[in-house]
Write a structure and sequence with these properties.
CATH architecture of the largest domain: Roll
Mean pLDDT: 75
């Protein structure tokens, strides 16, 4: 009888001790054959995105290759082969030959309403049209007044279409998209990557491994290292209006704890290392109302990232797992700068859905942080915030 009751009593006592935060738990015998303590192999799964979260094994790194589960990102990479369409802020040079003596030439901007106003034809819609469409419309209008005049319209200044370069570039700012440009053209326009000085020696301070191109709120999978260091032309994507290029600093040691945390944020490495437990605590813990209890860790660039799924029930104090981690008897993941730690919301089932949402949230956070940094450095150097005096 005693032999039967004693184990149950010991287990109960141990559980009470753990929940009370007993330090003696660290001195308990180590678990034998604990699979979570074995080195995590990186599994090559080309269609990992097709797995549900329940099908994924926790605590194992998976190398995510470009696959059909992420094929919709290819739509973001297709070249825009259509003709240029005018917009508000563009300026046009309009020339009429055969009117009066010689030629008549004027430069007109497209006004905020999307129109231009020209003599004899009045107000003409221009925004959203191609040069040819606008020219044909104005020729038809002018034909009633000038039967033999020749009309010519050429772009004088492109102001409606822009792209933004942020981060560790010499001249981070908004640039006009003048004609067709590619990614290397955009980097060159921003003066190239910034160099720092360490002990009187110039050194790169940019991190191309985590550089991103954000388009329409989504990250386009571009390998900036291959583009710059290996001159890989397949990575030299054509720039579109509204694109945001962000090149982070190699000196900034930060991970991003995003998703269903109580306080999602970028978390700095206070010391030489940062663990998943540290990140969860600094992000305010899991939001139990919106989180499904999983965390997805994304490491590496967005072209071929590694992912690891963690079941947060292992950090549940009721199961004493949190104290096993603290006591070194269960796995806690050591994070690296640039990692995305994403608390998975309840609405997702498949890995591909989680990965896409995590990277999209990451892109929004990066660009927001970069824009705030520029504002505080250039516009608000004393960091007054909303209380900045006039």
């Amino acid at each position: 009888m005693k032999q039967k009751i004693l184990p149950d009593f010991s287990a109960t006592l141990l559980l009470l001790c753990v929940l009370a935060g007993c330090s003696s738990v660290n001195n308990l015998p180590k678990l034998e054959n604990n699979r979570e303590l074995l080195p995590a192999n990186v599994l090559e799964l080309p269609n990992a995105g097709d797995l549900t979260l329940d099908e994924m094994e926790t605590g194992v790194w998976i190398q995510l290759n470009p696959d059909r589960s992420l094929e919709d990102t290819q739509l973001l990479m297709e070249r825009d082969t259509g003709p240029y369409r005018l917009g508000v802020g563009d300026e046009l040079e309009i020339t009429i030959y055969g009117y009066g003596e010689g030629e008549n030439q004027r430069t007109l901007p497209i006004d905020p309403a999307g129109n231009i106003t020209y003599m004899m034809v009045g107000t003409v819609p221009a925004a959203g049209r191609t040069i040819d469409e606008l020219t044909e419309d104005m020729r038809a209008r002018l034909s009633e007044e000038l039967k033999y005049a020749i009309l010519n319209i050429t772009p004088y200044h492109f102001g409606s279409q822009t792209f933004t370069v942020l981060g560790q570039m010499k001249y981070p700012q908004v640039y006009p998209l003048e004609g067709r440009m590619r990614l290397l053209d955009a980097l060159a326009k921003a003066g190239g990557t910034k160099l720092g000085e360490i002990r009187n020696v110039s050194a790169d301070i940019h991190d191309l491994a985590h550089a991103t191109l954000v388009r329409g709120g989504q990250v386009v999978p571009i390998d900036f290292e291959k583009l710059v260091y290996e001159a890989d032309a397949t990575q030299n994507l054509e720039i579109r209006s509204g694109d945001i290029i962000f090149v982070p600093s190699a000196l900034e040691r930060k991970i991003y704890a995003l998703g269903s945390f109580n306080s999602p944020q970028g978390v700095q490495f206070a010391h030489s290392s940062l663990s998943l437990m540290n990140a969860v605590v600094q992000a305010g813990g899991m939001n139990t109302a919106t989180s499904d209890g999983h965390i997805l860790i994304i490491r590496g660039n967005t072209v071929r990232p590694k992912i690891m799924l963690m079941d947060m029930s292992q950090f549940d104090s009721k199961k004493a797992r949190v104290f096993k981690i603290i006591g070194g008897r269960a796995m806690d993941v050591q994070l690296q700068p640039g990692d995305i730690v994403y608390a998975v919301p309840k609405k997702f089932s498949f890995a591909r859905e989680v990965i896409k949402d995590a990277i999209r949230t990451f892109a929004t956070t990066l660009t927001s942080d970069a824009a705030t940094d520029i504002y505080q450095r250039d516009v608000d150097p004393f960091n007054f915030g909303t209380e900045r005096p006039d």
